[in-house]
Specification:
Radius of gyration: 15 Å
Helix content: 10-25%
CATH topology: D-tyrosyl-trna(Tyr) Deacylase, Chain: A
Largest sheet: 6 strands, mixed
CATH architecture: 3-Layer(bba) Sandwich
Distance between the termini: 5 Å
CATH superfamily: D-tyrosyl-tRNA(Tyr) deacylase
Oligomer: single chain
Order of helices and strands: EEEHEEHEHEE
Number of helices: 3
Length: 146
Amino acid sequence: MVALIQRVKHAAVDIEDKRFSEIGNGLLVLLGVGHEDSAEKAAALAKKTAALRIFYDNEGKMNLSLADTHGEALVVSQFTLMADTQKGNRPSFMNAAKPELAIPLYELYVAELGKLLGKEIKTGKFAADMQVSLVNDGPVTIWLEQ
């Protein structure tokens, strides 16, 4: 399981030219689920996401987590993060989990993150054609794997 995490001032998901969800200050999480991932990995990744210290404290140091700042989170499923590009120019997505595994693990990650932060987590729509917009703050972009 991988998460591409971006610290944002604002992020939104549009589907069919309509706003589906949006957040202010916080994290945009693009989440990829592999066919060997598990509930334990999803929970551990959610814990790491909530505790990742990438927000500035009063001294201008990255010492605060999303939990500390009470920021928002937007989690978007993105199977393309599981791409294998070792051979040729066309990515292989054989490492991506099929929906029957990916959807429950995606939902578990979102639920665990919500419990840890004590708030609703905004999401995209699994397998939808989404337009994701963001204002990356910093920019700060972190790759997490479990």
